[in-house]
Write a structure and sequence with these properties.
Elements lengths: L1 H8 L5 E9 L3 E8 L5 E7 L6 H13 L8 E6 L4 E6 L6 H6 L6 H20 L2 E2 L8 E6 L2 E6 L6 E2 L9 E2 L3 H4 L16 E2 L1 H17 L8 H10 L10 H10 L11 H12 L2 H6 L29 E6 L5 E5 L2 E6 L2 E5 L7 E4 L6 E5 L2 E5 L3 E6 L6 E5 L5 E4 L5 E6 L2 E6 H10 L7 E4 L7 E4 L4 E8 L4 E8 L4 E8 L3 E5 L5 E6 L5 E6 L4 E6 L5 E7 L2 E6 L3 E5 L5 E6 L4 E7 L3 E8 L2 E8 L1 H12 L1
Antiparallel strand pairs: 1-2, 2-3, 3-5, 4-5, 6-9, 7-8, 10-11, 12-39, 13-14, 14-15, 15-16, 17-18, 18-19, 19-20, 21-22, 22-23, 23-24, 25-26, 26-27, 27-28, 29-30, 30-31, 31-32, 33-34, 34-35, 35-36, 37-38, 38-39
Amino acid sequence: MKLLRNKIALKRSRYRILGLVGQGQYGQVFCAADRQTGKLVALKALSQHRASTSEFLQELRVLLTLQHPNIVACRAVEHTATGRYLVMDYCEGGTLRDLLDRPNSLKLGDALRLVLGILAGLDCAHRQAVLHCDLKPENILLSLMAAGWLPRLSDFGIARHLPSMEAGHLYQELSQATISAIGPPAYSAPERFYGLYSPVSDLYSVGILLFELLLGYRPFSGTPAQIMWAHVNERLELPAGVPEPLQSILHIALEKLPARRFASASQMEQALRDAIASPQLQTLREETLPLQCATHPIAPTPNSNYIAESLPGQVQATLSDPITCLATANGYLYAASDKTVRGWKEPRTPIVEMDFPERVHCLLPLSQGTLALTERTVYGFNTDSWQAQVLLHLTNDFKAALDPTGQWLAIAIAGQLQFYSLAALFQASFNDRPPEAKHRLALPSPTLPELIFLDSRHLLAIASDPDQNQTDLRFYSRRGTAIGWLHLSGYFSHFVPAAEPYTAIAVEPLPHLAAVAIQLKPLQIRRTLLSCQAPTCCAIAPWGSAFADRRGQIVLLDPEGSPQGNFAAPPNPTALAPWGESSLAMATRVGDCGKLHLLDLQQQLQQTSSVSAD
């Protein structure tokens, strides 16, 4: 109900809310799109019951004062009849907490670069006499850049803005009310519990963050009272498996006495840079976190329990031409090989073969048949007659996508996006009349984007440029309305719709090979490191997704994007498609011929499920 009231309040504003992305101490944070430009922003709705006008103005002043790549910027203030909102940069990667909670998402080098970014943002704030006082993973937002995640400090609701700042000086809270706002006990420096604070209090919090990134847990745990006592009295214990250069940094950052810590964020940043340059860390930078240390072992999660075994499967068919694409629907498997499309109802010889005048490069499955796409033509056929019909002929190259219900076809041609009713296309073909698009709109670039329906109403258009190392994502409704857009630094490929609603899966080759889940409502991006080479093909199934490289190494991910298993199959795969509840159809190239294999994943999926239950 509260979300509905906020949507109504903002209905006539400049921004269209796309979804709730967070709930802070003083209000909610929404993903929204600028109605004029389509650019995505974050709207922080500050509750008048939880945050006074002075607190609202304090955070606004801090955000306007601090301009740094590692600090979330405030772009405007939005007032409505029932609320007030800070308009801020949108960070599509979520929070550092989201990253910590996902297995197989960070390598040591990535984590240390994150900490360097946090320290750079803190150094900017401290130079402006601003202490954050509330550093925790939930208040560090992430933007996806070509080099990896960019951390950005946010939520300056209890920040302290001092008239001047002296290095090493401890400042006293002015009242008991402010003492109560000391930030989360798990990340607070010992002096904070006595109503004292200084720049090195923030650095203590960074030390806790670094510890948690490396080991997957915090140095002190228990009830809030137990954690407070431990921060003040308990000695820091570091497992032997932590590299020595990082042990030194953690011991200094987490000293009980403020005077013994790093004197500034820049000093701690330089110490961390020196550690990263050491030979020991150079050899460990590709190590996946958390570090496995014997004194505090991390129990393996079900999703990180990789299966290293060969799964050759059954050879179902050998064809004269390599298979270029596979598709499944309603129990049928379809394979395109040069100008021929074959169909199987069960693992045996194909029940039908259809020849086309041009090479078929894409198959879009229907509930009772499929669409076959050639260079300029869309063909359709159903399982009743097995007779192909010309549904749409285009004079230029095109890209196409079919919505999950099989009712709407989106076509991208140079500079234009078109939406067709599939029923109308079949009817127009039957009556021999030219088809008409239901909706048309201009595309911002003549370059053809890849198209994916995220659900029956929302379309994603992807323009990836490997030379510029960038990707533009534009979101549209089925009625041709532009919803919003996002520019990503980095090149992405192999976009496919995910089993999860409003989500697409893509492959990011750099800085580390990863599967990226892009969620639309609200826009959020999750990355999972892949333990294979660059994929040549991928497939989506109800149980998750599969990626195969040229060696035949296949990685399975669950619907949330976490690893399920890893196994070896025949080399040189050209296409993948799910078939049945637990099988995977796989096409491979052998010389000038193509082979179709059926891989039974039942054992792999059952092993993962049994580990999850335990």
